[in-house]
Write a structure and sequence with these properties.
single chain; 6-stranded mixed sheet; 4-stranded antiparallel sheet
Length: about 280
Amino acid sequence: MRTALALATAGVPVLPLRAGKLPFGNCRACADGACGGRPHMRSAGTCQCPAACHGWAAATTDTRVITSSAWAPAWRQAVSVAYHPGGAGLTVVDLDNAEAVAWARATLPLTRTVATTRGEHWIYQGTVRSVNAVRDGVDIKSLMSYARWLGPGTGTMTPLPDAVRALAVREPSTALSAPGVVTVPAPVGGGECRHRTPVYLDRGIAMAEQRIADARSAVHTTVYRTFLAVLSTHGRCGCLTDTHVTRLFAAAQAKGESLRHCTGAWTNARTKLGL
């Protein structure tokens, strides 16, 4: 807990891990992984919790939550601390064997490095979707994922390179371009986001990305409805940026949507909401 509190104070969302590097379920329905170990999503979750209850979705910087009686049983059994890289604005390139480490040293720019049991974590500034097995022994952990805290590491943290962003796209041949005009009207009263915290927005975007990724049919409809949901929540408070919209477009294009379809769905959702 001391480690967790220090990280939370530094702005890094944390959570306890049980044996096997697994998160705790923070409700009765998810105790001991009964729900399958997946954080609840209102649109695509496997447990019926009223809110996000565990895994990356439970990671927090709120020291009151970390020290609360609700989390006390987990800390008594915890074997390590994990953190949500995406929530801290970071991406971890998890290199799981010597060959993967050699590939990174020959391919990627140097950055903060943390030794692991079998390889290394390379930590970059910036976020991207999380994808496992992008190549042999290489996982990307950022948004909607967690990584074990293994110490501060060594070296200077550098910006997330395009080479890593490219690995996170399931279909590299799909060209990704930022949408056209994506600014939205600021609210009366100075433009301050009514949600007051960027964590709320980031979590909403991450959940939208996952909803699109989980679509098994009617992908175009799912993309449109997801865009509509994001805009209905954040479209009038002035907090959406090109970066957020590009993330949504990337998730849609990874499911086979063309840039034209993405732009059309976004425009139609804005028109529907009068933005």
